[in-house]
Amino acid sequence: WTFEELKTAVAQKMQDYEGLVYTDDNIKEAKADIATLRKLKKDISDKRIEIKNKCLEPYNIIEKQAAELTELIDKPIGTIDSQLSEYEQNRRAAVREKIHAYMDEAFKDFPSGIAERLKVDTYDTKFENVSTPIKTWKQYIDDAAKRVQRDLNAIKDENVCPEEFREGVMAVYSEKLVLNDAIAKVGELRQQKERIIARERERIAAEEREKARKETT
Q1: What is the pLDDT at residue 52?
Q2: What are the tens digits of pLDDT across the range 134-180?
Q3: What are the distances in angstroms from CA 184 to CA 146, 149, 150, 188?
Q4: Which of 34, 30, 53, 32 is nearest to 42 (CA)?
C-alpha cells in the first residue's frame, strides 16, 4: 500500500476517460469501461479491508482478553453493589420511619382526616437523602403544622366562620388544606341559608294570604 504511487497511477489512468462520449456504436466499450472502473474500485476496497483486518488482529486479541478480565471484575462489583443497594434501602426505610414518627407527634392534635392529608402533602422523598439534615425536614414539618393550626384557628373564629357552617367548611378544608377554599365555602353556605330563609318566608306569607282570603269569604 504505497499511497502516493497508487494515487499517481490511478489519476493517470482516469485521464483516459476524460471527455469520452459514448454512442450507440461503442456502447459495448462503455459497458466494458465501467466494469473495469468498478473492478478497480473493488480491488482498492478489498485491499483496505485486508489491511484493516490485519491491523485489528492484535486489537481483537486484546478485546477478548479485556472482556475476560472485565467479567472477573464484574462479579465482586455485583456483590458489593447488591449490598450497597440493600444498605441504601434499609437506610431510607429507617429515615422514613423517623419522619413518620415525627409527623405523628407534630400532627397528633389535628383531626385524623386533616392529619393524614397533611402527612401526604408534607412528605418529600428528598428528606431521605443523606445530604438532607434532620433539622431541615423537622423544620419543614413544624412549619406545616403551624400553618394548619393557624388555618384551623381562623375557621374556629366566629367572625370568619359561624359555628353553624363549620362542619361543611371543615369538610372542604380537609380535602386540600387550602384556607381560601374553606372561606369561600362560608359564603356559599351563607347564600344557601339565605335562599332557604327566603323560601320559608314566602311559604309563610302565602299561607297567611290564603288564611286571610278564607276568613273574608
Answers
A1: 94
A2: 999 999 999 999 999 999 999 999 988 888 989 999 999 999 999 99
A3: 22, 19, 17, 7
A4: 34
pLDDT of residue 211: 83
> Cα–Cα distance between 142 and 116 in angstroms, integer?
15
**Contact by Cβ (8 Å): 194, 173:** no
Cell 369561600: give the residue: 184
The answer to whether 129 and 99 are in contact (CB under 8 A) is no
Alpha-carbon dihedral angle through residues 124, 127, 129, 130, given to the nearest 10 degrees: 180
Q: Report whether 118 contacts 177 (CB < 8 A).
A: yes
Residue keyed to cell 335562599: 195
Query: Which residues of the chain are modeled with pLDDT < 50?
Result: none
With cell 414539618, the residue in question is: 141
* 98 grid coordinates: 423517623
HEC states along the chain?
Answer: CCHHHHHHHHHHHHHHHCCCCCCHHHHHHHHHHHHHHHHHHHHHHHHHHHHHHHHHHHHHHHHHHHHHHHHHHHHHHHHHHHHHHHHHHHHHHHHHHHHHHHHHHHCCCCCHHHHHHHHHHHCCHHHHCCCCCHHHHHHHHHHHHHHHHHHHHHHHCCCCCCHHHHHHHHHHHHHHCCHHHHHHHHHHHHHHHHHHHHHHHHHHHHHHHHHHHHHHC
Which amino acid is it at 169? V
